[in-house]
């Protein structure tokens, strides 16, 4: 039988590890998104120097930069400037999926035990049941809602155990319309009155509206349907 003191000590260690990881993420967010320690123009110059491999290089570099909280709209706009609206959209979506994979893996490794310890066994099991049923659309919906960091959300999804296939599929579906919008705006930066720029704005607005409506309905469903909180397989 496991000693209760040992269990409590292990729980405290997991929660402390989660808190340290959250502090690290907040520090990265401040340095990159607020203080702007990464020079995006310099990154763009390095990408150009790779020639024909530039799209693949940008996917890898942008995925890593996104995981350390370089704002996604800036990365997508740079993709549009470098590669145009069509190829640039695929590059942007590929990078967004790469960020989701990196952040989710790190979140799962560093924060999964802490998140479960913080929630407690019963709540953790109920959350697992929710993720099994609705994890994919939670990822899609988060990508649609404006103003929410995709990287921070991916770290959180990873810590709460969202399966990798849901992260990949949800990131692809959810990032496609918004990725096009930001990429197209970057591609049309020298022609702000072009049809492409207007199309990008329309897509962005529609995506934001759908995201807000879906998030609101999802929250209401979570609060008003207690049967959804039962663990999977319970009688």
Strand fraction band? under 5%
As a percent range, the share of helical residues equals over 70%
Number of domains: 1
Shape: globular
H/E series:
HHHHHHHHH
Average pLDDT rating: 82
Please give the radius of gyration in angstroms: 20 Å
Q: Work out the helix count.
A: 9
Structural class: mainly alpha
Which segments are poorly predicted (pLDDT under 50) over 5 or more consecutive residues? 226-235
Largest sheet: none
Amino-to-carboxy terminus distance: 27 Å
Number of strands: 0
List keywords for this structure.
9 helices; VTT_dom; disordered C terminus; transmembrane; membrane
Give a description of the structure.
It is built from nine helices and no strands. It has 235 residues and is an all-alpha fold. The two termini are 27 Å apart. InterPro entries: TMEM64, VTT_dom. It is found in: Cell membrane. It is a multi-pass membrane protein.
Give a short synopsis of this structure.
The chain is mostly helical.
């Amino acid at each position: 039988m496991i000693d209760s003191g040992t269990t409590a000590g292990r729980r405290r260690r997991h929660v402390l590890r989660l808190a340290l990881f959250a502090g690290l993420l907040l520090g990265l967010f401040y340095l990159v998104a607020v203080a702007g320690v990464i020079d995006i123009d310099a990154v763009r110059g390095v990408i150009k120097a790779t020639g024909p491999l530039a799209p693949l290089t940008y996917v890898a570099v942008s995925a890593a930069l996104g995981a350390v909280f370089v704002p996604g709209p800036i990365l997508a706009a740079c993709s549009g400037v470098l590669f145009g609206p069509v190829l640039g959209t695929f590059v942007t979506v590929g990078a967004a999926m790469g960020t989701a994979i990196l952040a989710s893996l790190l979140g799962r490794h560093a924060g999964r035990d802490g998140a479960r310890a913080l929630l407690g066994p019963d709540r953790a099991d109920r959350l697992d049941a929710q993720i099994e049923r609705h994890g994919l659309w939670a990822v899609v919906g988060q990508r649609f809602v404006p103003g929410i960091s995709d990287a921070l959300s991916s770290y959180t999804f990873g810590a709460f155990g969202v399966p990798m296939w849901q992260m990949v599929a949800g990131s692809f579906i959810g990032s496609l319309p918004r990725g096009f919008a930001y990429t197209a705006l970057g591609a049309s930066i020298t022609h702000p009155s072009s049809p492409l720029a207007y199309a990008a704005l329309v897509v962005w607005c529609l995506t934001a509206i759908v995201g807000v409506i879906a998030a609101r309905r999802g929250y209401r469903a979570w609060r008003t349907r207690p049967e959804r909180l039962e663990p999977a397989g319970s009688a």
